[in-house]
């Protein structure tokens, strides 16, 4: 017989059939690799009881508007609503010149009045926005 790998002429008694079907001589023959017989095991990675986390929805900072004109040099503001505004909160007020005046609230607001830690450098008209930077909410 002719060896399929080397091409040598070899006696039939010295030949072996490989697992691929080809015939090899005894010196060239190799057993089949044991890793050829390994079979994959399915790996189920699904979660038994899925409970995905809900996405945070940003609502934004607490905002209100001024209900009465505020003159330059004052530290007291009359606002539409004081809910969500507390003493020590950092707030920003849009002034008539377009600048944002940042201050801290002195004490808890009483009624519809908010007292600021500093005085206004410019006037603020009724309807201007007062934003509480400390109190932001998510849902």
Describe this protein's structure.
This protein is mostly beta strands. It folds into 2 domains: 1-34, no CATH class; 58-138, Elongation Factor Tu (Ef-tu), domain 3. 0% of the residues lie in helices and 29% in strands. The chain has no helices and 8 strands. It has strands at 15-17, 23-25, 58-65, 76-78, 90-94, 100-104, 113-115, 129-138. The strands form 3 sheets. Strands 3-8-5-6 form a 4-stranded antiparallel β-sheet, with no helix packed on it. A two-stranded antiparallel ribbon has the order 1-2. Strands 4-7 form a two-stranded antiparallel ribbon. A hairpin with a 5-residue loop joins strand 1 (15-17) and strand 2 (23-25).
**pLDDT average, as an integer?**
89
> Main β-sheet, in a few words?
4 strands, antiparallel
Tally the beta strands.
8
Q: CATH topology of the largest domain, what is it called?
A: Elongation Factor Tu (Ef-tu), domain 3
* Radius of gyration over all CA atoms, rounded: 41 Å
Instruction: Give the overall silhouette.
Output: rod-shaped
The ordered string of helix (H) and strand (E) elements is EEEEEEEE
Secondary-structure-derived class: mainly beta
The CATH class of the largest domain is identified as Mainly Beta
Please give the count of helices.
0
User: Taking strands numbered 1, 2, ... along the chain, how are they ordered across the largest sheet?
Assistant: 3-8-5-6
Low-confidence sequence ranges = none
